[in-house]
Amino acid sequence: MLQNSRSHLFYQTDHPRPVLDRAEGIYMWDIEGNRFIDGSSGAMVCNIGHSNPHVLEAMRRQMEKSTFGYRLHFVTEASEALAAKVSELAWPGMDRVFFVSGGSEAVESAIKLAREWAVATAQPSRWKVISRYPSYHGCTLGALSVSGYDALTDPYLPMMVQMPKVPAPRWWLDGLDPDDPATGAHYAQMLEAQILEEGADSVLAFIMEPVGGASTGALVPPKGYMEAVREVCTRHGILLIHDEVLSGGGRTGHMFAGQNWGDAPDIIAISKGFGAGYVPLGAMIARGEIVEAVLKKGPFAHGFTYAGNPLACAAGLAVLEEIERHGMMQNAVSTGDLLKARLTGLMDEFPFIGEVRGIGMLLAFEVVADRKTKAPFDPAFKAYDRLTEEAYARGLIIYPRRSRGGYAGDHYLVAPPMITTPAQVDEIIEKLTGALRAFAPEALARMAG
Ligand code: PLP
């Protein structure tokens, strides 16, 4: 049964959707019994799979004790335990945790803490937050101001201060070698040039995703980039914010994707896989000295009502325990490598697949009208949407986005839960192959034309 056409609900699209009945592991069923593979973990959220019994039990136990304790009235055992666990998993010195209920809230919090730090440390001229283009950091006006995704920002431009942007290191479009350290240095130099153009003492922070999500389709930074960016920020006294809302939570083989490279940021924003779909949960994690400077000056003038509620924190803690107990991050790497190899293998049959990229279970492929030049399809063809619907019709969910900044380009994230098995990779590839074969005739005709 499809969603009632006279539904009172509305979101972004008018695609009718089936009514969800239940979900378990990597599968979801609608109320008519049709089964779907959650090939994108929702929106890269359900990292440990659906209906994990340990998480459900931990939530049940917490619910019987208390579901809410306002953060200015109580701390709770669950929020203390989760904050301690998250600090232990992050880099040394990143030991202060501020809970929120989602990714946009985490990003807003990071930007505002950075600003409070500048004010507290007698640097009030610093307020600009440089980010990358394309990028997506959330839908609130503050998070949008650092997002580079025109289709989402354009309607709101008069209502916000657009922050400066530098190119995301999309080496494949620029014809550069990702294994050459000069490539990483090239993009970091663009950041430094932008800092100098703005005036270094006006720049507060640089925000970036260590591994790209929806806007870039699993962009993996080229060699040398992460180290060079860290060095540029430090040299100019600029805070480095890692937006790990999508890349965090273990699917790249580390709890934080930035740990694949080593250098620590100053602030991290996390959400999505942190609550893993069991509860709305997010956090900002910051270096202790940043928080201490802010709290010494006065209160951090920021906060959300549901922050740190015990139910969300108990669920978040159980999620982290399950990831560790079952070696899910290791599986994300080994099965993710297999999935990436199988996706890459599809390029033999489908010449419009221009690129497969990503790391662990955070993978994407992009379709193009010309594999050599990477020219995108005519945007009106809506390749991102068509192929996704073909996959959906076959019971496979993938996550499409425009790859070239919001209006053009077509990529699809393939990011199933970290518990996916090699046999389930076969199932994903089989369904995806069927969808690509249905999509192929028109795509091939458009390539030729
Ligand atoms: N940051 C990144 C990198 C994201 O991918 C998203 C959501 O897709 C957000 C922030 C915003 O998160 P939320 O939708 O939970 O507000």
Instruction: Assign the CATH superfamily of the largest domain.
Output: Type I PLP-dependent aspartate aminotransferase-like (Major domain)
> What is the helix content?
25-40%
SS-derived structural category: alpha/beta
Shape: globular
Ligand identities: pyridoxal-5'-phosphate
Number of separate strands: 14
Mind describing the biggest β-sheet? 7 strands, mixed
Spatial order of strands in the largest sheet: 4-10-9-8-7-5-6
Number of helices, counting only DSSP H or I runs of 4 residues or more: 13
Low-confidence sequence ranges: none
Range of strand content: 5-15%
Radius of gyration: 22 Å
CATH topology of the largest domain: Aspartate Aminotransferase, domain 2
Q: Secondary structure elements and their pairing?
A:
Elements: E1 20-24, E2 27-30, E3 35-37, H1 41-44, H2 53-65, H3 77-89, E4 96-100, H4 103-120, E5 128-133, H5 141-145, H6 150-153, E6 165-167, H7 181-198, E7 203-208, H8 225-235, E8 239-243, E9 267-270, E10 282-286, H9 288-297, H10 310-325, H11 328-345, E11 353-359, E12 362-367, H12 383-393, E13 399-401, E14 410-414, H13 422-448
3D architecture notes:
- The chain is of the alpha/beta class and 449 residues long.
- Helix content is 37%, strand content 15%.
- The chain is built from 13 helices and 14 strands.
- The strands form 3 sheets. The chain has a 7-stranded mixed beta sheet with strand order 4-10-9-8-7-5-6, sandwiched between helices. A 4-stranded antiparallel beta sheet has the order 11-12-14-13. Strands 1-2-3 form a 3-stranded antiparallel beta sheet, with no helix packed on it.
- Strand 13 (399-401) and strand 14 form a beta hairpin.
- It starts with 19 loop residues before the first strand and ends with a helix.
- Pyridoxal-5'-phosphate (PLP) is lined by residues 43, 102-104, 107, 136-139, 209, 213-214, 243, 245-246, 271.
